[in-house]
Design goal:
With 472 residues, this protein is mainly β. The chain contains no helices and 53 strands.
Length: 472
């Protein structure tokens, strides 16, 4: 007898549930965990009704909100190498007070062009995310919004791939005026050696009232048009490690609107491609600050205008320590604000002047490295003289604001010889300006006579203190 044996073949092309043999992209899914197959092309997933578990994607999930967590506890979203999560509004949206344990991306997470300005890759809308890990070769991209937009707590973002806002920002951390308020709080951003965080505007944007505790960068952080890092609020620590690059079309690191950084340590490159390497601003009378800035031996801070620029109200309240290179095509350091002290064992240089100080350096300059030129307006009746110790600048320029306010410098442990001159732009008038240089003799100074704006001047020494007499 010949028997016919029938073999049934089942093709699993949908979402696989832990308690079901197969399904074809059921929407909404009945429960978690769920797994999509490589060939799947699934509509957006709206997770609610207290669903708990994980999502593993090997195919394509797309929709206005490709994955929306409205009332679920998602332990893990794993987007594998073949996986794409694509949303026209957001690719992944985590609603207020909802929880996602970790997002592990080895494929593509993408927010498409949204005419209303969203189009985010991952949008944490006052929810909670423990970890986002973007792996080597993976991409989180936004066409109109931010690759990662955050108004809630995120414990860590680890990047070994590409995080990019192609028309906007890479990572935006901000505040939402709601009740209760939505406050972006990121504990750690780690951008590893192969990682790139980029934005057409800024790569990392930390807005008013938001907080980032630590940024560790060994890769590339690049803002094409504006800033590498734009800080309007609070950042605890930035470590730009060896091979790390922070660059912006304007400023590399931009601190404004009352923004503050406790400690910046640079052993890589910080570059302002059309303006300043580091800028500390004072828009709307909010002073911006860095407490301690450490530029280590391999560190390079450069700008097409200034290496470091502080405008009025900007401050580096602790120590600006330089063992590397600070260079600006105009000024190495431009200070119209307040610097606690400068300790230099590296090189500070500028196309015009190395240090242009029309503000205050409270505790002076210690130099065991190279400072090519120093312009100083600190002194007179407005403030105490600038204190200076160590290797003399090659050139020293006194800036005179008025008969009562003009640059004074007190020097200890001098080494070398410096050329003396009057800074361009000084509105000088006839008379004697006393105690402009103390602590050294004329033997340490070249150029003790000259003519400025048609007025003859002479530098004279009296009891270890030099004064300048201007004669018409």
């Amino acid at each position: 007898m010949i028997r016919t044996i029938y073999i049934s073949l089942f093709l699993f092309t949908g979402i696989l549930f832990s308690n079901a043999a197969s399904a074809v992209c059921v929407y909404p899914p009945n429960n978690l965990p769920l797994i999509t197959a490589v060939a799947d092309n699934c509509s957006g997933l709206n997770l609610n009704a207290n669903q708990n578990g994980s999502i593993t994607n090997n195919g394509t999930i797309n929709g206005s909100l490709a994955i929306q967590n409205t009332n679920a506890n998602i332990t893990t979203i794993s987007n594998n190498i073949s996986g794409s999560i694509i949303g026209s509004t957001d690719a992944i949206n985590n609603a207020p007070e909802q929880i996602i344990g970790s997002i592990i991306n080895n494929g593509l997470i993408k927010g498409l062009t949204d005419p209303f300005g969203a189009g985010n890759g991952i949008d944490n809308v006052s929810g909670k995310i423990t970890s986002i890990h973007n792996s080597l070769g993976a991409s989180i991209i936004a066409e109109t919004g931010a690759a990662i937009a955050n108004t809630g707590p995120i414990t860590e973002i680890i990047n070994d791939g590409l995080i990019s806002g192609t028309t906007n920002r890479g990572i935006t951390n901000f505040y939402g005026p709601r009740s209760p308020p939505w406050v972006g709080n990121i504990t750690t951003i780690t951008n590893n050696t192969n990682g790139t965080i980029s934005g057409q505007r800024s790569a990392i944007d930390n807005q008013t009232l938001a907080n980032i505790s630590t940024i560790n960068n060994s890769g590339n952080i690049s803002g094409v048009n504006d800033f590498g890092i734009d800080n309007w609020s609070t950042i605890g620590v930035i470590n730009n490690n060896t091979n790390g690059n922070i660059s912006g079309g304007k400023n590399g690191l931009n601190v404004r609107l009352g923004g503050s950084i406790n400690t910046l340590t640079n052993n890589g490159n910080i570059d302002g491609q059309s303006s300043d390497g580091i800028f500390l601003g004072n828009e709307n009378v909010f002073g911006s600050s860095i407490v301690n800035l450490n530029n280590l031996a391999a560190g390079v801070i450069t700008g097409r205008v200034n290496g470091i620029s502080l405008i009025s109200g900007g401050s580096i309240s602790g120590v600006l320590l330089n063992a590397g290179t600070i260079h600006g095509d105009v000024y190495g350091i431009k200070n119209l604000g307040n610097i606690g002290s400068i300790n230099n064992s590296g090189v500070i240089s500028g196309g015009t002047y190395s240090i242009y100080n029309l503000g205050l350096i409270s505790n002076g300059i210690i130099n065991s490295g190279t400072i090519s030129s120093l312009v100083n307006a600190q002194g007179g009746s407005a403030s105490l003289p600038l204190s200076y110790s160590g290797n003399l600048p090659a050139s020293y320029y006194i800036y005179i604001s008025s008969k009562n306010n003009y640059g004074q410098i007190t020097i200890t442990n001098p080494n070398g010889v410096m050329a003396f001159n009057i800074a361009p732009g000084s509105p000088i008038s006839r008379g004697i300006y006393k105690n402009i240089i103390s602590g050294i003799n004329l033997s340490n100074i070249t150029g003790n006579t000259g003519v400025y704006d048609g007025i003859s001047w002479k530098l004279v020494n009296k009891g270890g203190s030099c004064k300048t007499r201007f004669l018409r």
